[in-house]
Amino acid sequence: MKISVILGHPYENSFNSAIAEAVIKSLKENRHTVRFHDLYRENFNPVIPKEELVSDQTKDDLVKLHQQEIQDADGIVIIHPNWWGQPPAILKGWVDRVLRENIAYAFPEGDNGGGLPIGLLKAKTGLVINTSNTPALREIEQFGDPLNRLWKDCIFDFCGVSDFHRIMFEVVADSSVSEREKWLSQTGTFIKHFLPK
What we know:
The protein is of the alpha/beta class. The chain is 41% helix and 20% strand. The strands form 2 sheets. Strands 2-1-3-6-7 form a 5-stranded parallel sheet, with helices on both faces. A two-stranded antiparallel ribbon has the order 4-5. α1 packs parallel to α7. The chain is globular and about 55 Å long. The mean pLDDT is 94.
């Protein structure tokens, strides 16, 4: 299968980057074709031009490449930190510019966008891996786990990706080397379970 892997973290040596490496390794061990994009290394421009917003057409070759690959993907893996209960701005901009109408979703004829969308992505499985400095119980009880709601309901389900799974590693700031090694091992297991051969 063709799997799109998207990383949104500014530091090359971050734990998120280590997670991305573990994801790619597991996917390749399962003989998947991996299309990996580190948005910061690619200098992906997250700001959607007004012309692009109105027309749904982009002149940006990198955005076009991402759109082609995401349409063709059998599975999608997103990796990013939890910043203010949201993905980093570069990843939000990736959603804005790549998952456009008639690329990732459409509306029935005559619907101006107020009705229920038709998901167009052929990927059936969407996986999200997050890191956080907020303990899990506080994230759920105090904040309601906004990242799960965002990715599962507002993005993947909207675009037709029905099989959604997410894992969060926390608290990263206080984690030991052995904890991080354990998390990387869990990442490999997570990928192989939900994106098997």
